[in-house]
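Exercise 7b. Backbone tokens:
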């Protein structure tokens, strides 16, 4: 986590963001949002996409109250290991996720290229 320090225009905040992120590639910014990094824009985008989806699902699940069923710890650890392989994640994002997202953006608003 990184505590909210106001609008992120202060360059002095960068070292604190880096320190809080550490060796991870995703972080929650308290009372502000999310932050992801990657070897490429594609991998950072994919991480952001799935982090935002996970947060949305967490909020929706909490709305169910105490009837939500927790995921078994073994399943959590197995999946964390599968998705944490950096080379596999980079390949997935650059080959499978990023190209379709760019095509979608091209259809919706190609002005981003200029």
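Sequence design result:
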């Amino acid at each position: 986590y990184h505590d909210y320090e106001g609008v992120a225009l202060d360059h002095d905040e960068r070292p604190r963001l880096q320190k809080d992120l550490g060796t991870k590639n995703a972080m929650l910014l308290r009372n502000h949002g999310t932050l992801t990094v990657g070897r490429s824009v594609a991998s950072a985008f994919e991480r952001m996409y799935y982090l935002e989806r996970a947060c949305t699902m967490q909020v929706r699940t909490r709305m169910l109250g105490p009837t939500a069923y927790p995921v078994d710890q073994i399943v959590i650890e197995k999946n964390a290991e599968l998705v944490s392989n950096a080379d596999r994640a980079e390949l997935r994002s650059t080959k499978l996720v990023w190209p379709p997202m760019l095509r979608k953006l091209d259809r919706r608003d190609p002005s981003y290229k200029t």
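Instructor comment: The helical segments are 14-21, 41-62, 73-84, 86-108. The first helix runs from residue 14 to 21.
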